[in-house]
Amino acid sequence: MVEGMSLEGSFSSDFKENDKGVERRRRKPPWGCGRLSKLEMELRNPAVSINVPTDVITGILSRLPVKNLVRFKCVSKPWNSLIDGSYLSNLQLRRSFTSNANIKLLLDIYSEFDEYKAYSVDFDSLDNLEELPRPLSTTSFGVSSRIFGSCNGLLAISHDEAGIALWNPSTKECHYPPKLTIGDMYDEIILGFGYDVINKDYKVVQMLSSGKLVMIYSLKANSWKRIKDCPYEITFHVSQDGSVHWVGVGNDKDDDARVNDDARVIFGLDLGIEEFHQLPGPESDISYKNFGYRSVGLLGGSLCVFRVIYHRDNIVLWVMKEYGVMESWTEDFYVSRDECWQWCTYYTRAISYSRRGDRVLLEDGGRPRQPAWFNLDKRTREVVDIPGAPKHFNAIIYVESLASARPGNH
């Protein structure tokens, strides 16, 4: 068995005395284990007599809260290397997703003093309110800051003047990419954030709503580069969950689409090959010009989108069970303002299912926003009430993780 991280012991077995004094006794790797990796060599502590395999220690650590792991980094250099490494980070993240654990709800709140404040609570219980040191929190008149992406425990924040920050609220680590300016007085700046599984890299997307000047930031390379323009004009976007998808109209849009700001195309950006692609929408017997899409995102790990039927004051949530397959679109539920919503339903956003799956957390289209639970069976609405927190806030789901915001390998 390969020796791993040591827990306790004494110095007696590793030193011997001779006529020249005390010298260190060489220890050989256990028979049959071959060469030890660099990490295993670092984790071996010759000053102990009881040893535990590295994979056992890693498995134990992957089950601990991230806050504890951050504190353990100061135990020793080997522990710091292990906790900072990608292997433990990925293992801890996989366990969290598999068990649906360590999920947090972040409350992004604009205070009356031109400042944003961030708080987090446990998603299941909605308690243990904790204030977090939010980056890019200070604003002024006409200057805004918002969290526009959440992926694997990293949050992406934009600021009209200061640029962008990538922030891990669990480890408090933060990185500021080089500032990029592609402003246009007639175009809105569109942002996206996600993970490139091919190159193991976190990427930020910034472009104009017209589809021009598409720039991609690579955290691994810590640099921006321009790619081909987007073939669609973006009319509505919600990217707060690592889903780099939008809705809009194609270059062949008709005048009605331009005037009504209709979004009839669902499309995404493949961060691996850095190319845009269109996705098939749900089948419908509704006239093509009588509906539009809103609020594309992820729900329960699947792509979802709200579809608006004009002249009706309700919206229907569709979920794509198998990515890219039109037949897998499933009508999940609908929301009516007359029934349970007090604001315009056009800008409702689905955030997450409850653990039991009988409710879905929605964010309404009002200003300020007010998240609420929508009961799928009873069709009732219950405003989220968190003790000690304001009722109005922008809601973001994230998972506690060790994901690094530093440039380099991930």
UniProtKB/TrEMBL annotation:
| Alphabetical list of SMART domains matching this protein | FBOX
Quote the PROSITE patterns the UniProt record gives.
FBOX (PS50181)
Region span, Disordered:
1-29
Q: Where is the F-box domain?
A: 46-91
This protein is called F-box protein CPR1
Q: Which gene encodes it?
A: LOC107952406
